[in-house]
Design a protein that fits this description.
This protein has about 550 residues and is of the alpha+beta class. It contains 15 helices and 28 strands.
């Protein structure tokens, strides 16, 4: 069985839900011969509009869904069709989505037709000896097995079910698959719905002394901690010194509470060289202009200086009050800098760049393609008050007096302005979001929300890591190589000095291609050509400092 779903914001739960929009399944006999097929669309009740990225991936249209059946009606029909059979899915995300939808629409905590279950992805990975650290996709395993699935429509429920069946036929062993088939009782549901959490307090009783000790990565000797622990990105970090060889290094510990118990992941890395912020001198950098206003450094696009109804900016390290690796204009809460410093930095940067501090709105950046429309009621969200959503890497509005904010410290900030409809958008594109097409998602969302014509939109690509600095391994490169025209923005592989194969990805060129594919005119696209890693004395760079940094911000607002 396979499902397709649409990410939709629910007012009832005040959060996002993956609302199922299509069922697909193929029923088999004991010899894996096909007996029957099941396929139906589900009429959505939560998301009134189909997410543009989902529409692009699946080719499902809103017209398809209009004629669909209600979710619980689809569940009832599937139950009668299924009978007393084992349900197999590729990975457990479909099952978790099923459970969530049943809870949402019927209040029931269990799926009516689910009595026995098998995670076919886990079985296939074990049978093929694939690494458990990286989940193998359906298409990858089909390719490894030499299956021709070119006639199948990827990301459609029935076709993906048929591909899964072809894979199963290749690797089926009645004895070996038996342990993977589980009864769907209380233990199963507890395991499926358990939310892995991160330990973020060293005073938590689950934290043991051995979790926080390190041996020297060079000589294996005993080490002592020489600095305070700090919490960053849900992991604890501190500096250590080897008592035998004198090596200084950083130790990072990530502690997760999983269903099976505690998971402790330790990693060491060299102490990065943190550059001091450069002298405050105005001038051109790439295709952007550095202004110094009251000692605060502000980057802007000269190509947009004629847009008198919007104000845009990108922050720099110049003019703030933070110290050490946060020096000086750190705009990121929760990175180890004092909240008082960050608040004062926001006030100083807004004064220097021309924004009202109370107008700032920030999303929840999780490297996806969800985009949220915001208005005056959202002012201060994510900056001065806690956010109320779980996923929003893009923001858009047509309301003056609302300043859109995204963080970027190597990731790509993309600015959008619609001069016709007086609307704006701002998105954060990490490599995952870029590979998934968030620039195109923003173009489509602005068309849906404001009637924006892609041909009228102006787009600008802000400071971020350049191609020569963005060196990646094969798994990341593969995500980009799967895109049309990848030869324009992916090069490699090439051997590095340590004998590893690396690729280089041009995020700016990839972003430009998404914009062109979405209908934005080439003459309306501005590339800032400012590399955060090369300009690390001006901008925070995650790679250059190995995470020992503050945060840059992109800001965009309609003027009253």
């Amino acid at each position: 069985m396979d499902l397709e779903w649409n990410a939709a914001y629910s007012k009832k739960t005040k959060g996002y839900i993956n609302e199922i929009i299509e069922f697909g399944a193929v029923r088999c006999g004991s010899g894996l011969q096909e007996q029957d097929r099941f396929s139906c669309f589900v009429r959505p009740r939560v998301g009134k509009r189909l997410n543009s990225v989902v529409a692009g991936l699946t080719s499902i249209t809103e017209e398809n869904l209009t004629g669909g059946m209600a979710f619980m009606q689809a569940v009832s029909r599937f139950k009668r069709w299924l009978g007393n059979r084992v349900v197999m899915t590729w990975g457990t995300s479909d099952i978790l989505t099923l459970i969530t939808n049943c809870q949402y629409f019927s209040g029931e905590s269990q799926v009516p037709f689910l009595t026995r279950y098998c995670d076919l992805q886990r079985y296939a990975q074990d049978m093929l000896g694939l690494s458990g650290s990286e989940q193998a996709g359906l298409a990858k395993v089909a390719e490894l097995l030499g299956l021709d699935v070119s006639q199948m429509e990827h990301h459609r429920a029935l076709d993906d079910s048929l591909v899964a069946l072809e894979i199963l036929r290749k690797i089926y062993d009645a004895e070996k698959i038996s342990p993977y088939i589980v009864d769907c009782g209380t233990e199963f549901y507890n395991r499926m719905t358990f939310r892995t959490s991160y330990v973020t307090d060293l005073a938590d009783p689950v934290v043991q002394k051995e979790h926080l000790t390190f041996t020297c990565p060079a000589c294996g000797g005993a080490c002592r901690r020489s600095g305070h622990w700090s919490l960053r990105n849900r992991g604890f970090r501190a500096e250590f010194h080897c008592e035998e060889c004198g090596l200084a290094f950083f130790g990072r510990v990530i502690i997760k509470q999983k269903y099976e118990g505690l998971s402790v992941n330790k990693k060491t890395f060299p102490v990065p060289v943190i550059e001091a912020p450069r002298a405050a001198r105005a001038g051109a950098i790439g295709n952007m202009e550095l202004e110094i206003n009251g000692g605060v450094g502000v980057l802007r696009f000269p190509a947009w200086e004629g847009l008198d109804f919007v104000r845009h900016a990108f922050s720099t390290r110049l003019g703030g009050v933070s110290k050490r690796e946060f020096a000086a204009m750190n705009l990121g809460f929760g990175r180890g800098d004092g909240d008082g410093n960050v608040s004062e930095n926001y006030r100083r940067f807004c004064a220097g760049a021309g924004f009202e501090p109370e107008s700032l709105v920030c999303g929840c950046q999780v490297h996806k393609t969800d985009i949220r429309r915001v208005g005056p009621e959202h002012r201060g969200l994510g900056i001065w008050r806690a956010n109320d959503c779980q996923s929003a890497d893009g923001l858009c509005t047509n309301q003056p007096g609302v300043t859109l904010v995204v963080y970027a410290a190597d990731c790509v900030p993309v600015y959008f302005v619609d001069p016709e409809r007086r609307a704006i958008g701002l998105c954060h594109a990490g490599w995952r979001g870029m590979a998934a097409g968030i620039p195109m998602a923003m173009v489509r969302r602005m068309a849906e929300e404001f009637g924006s014509r892609p041909q009228a939109l102006l787009a600008a690509i802000g400071p971020s890591i350049c191609k020569s600095c963005f060196e990646v391994d094969e798994p990341v490169a593969r995500e980009f190589l799967a895109l049309d025209g990848s030869g324009d923005f992916v090069s490699g592989p090439a051997l590095t000095g340590d004998g590893h194969e690396k690729y280089h990805v041009d995020l700016w060129a990839c972003c430009r291609r998404w914009l062109l594919e979405a209908g934005v005119l080439p003459e309306h696209i501005t590339v800032g050509e400012v590399c955060t890693m090369r300009e690390s004395s001006l901008l925070f760079s995650h790679r250059k400092t190995r995470g020992q940094r503050g945060s840059n911000c992109a800001m965009l607002a309609l003027l009253p």
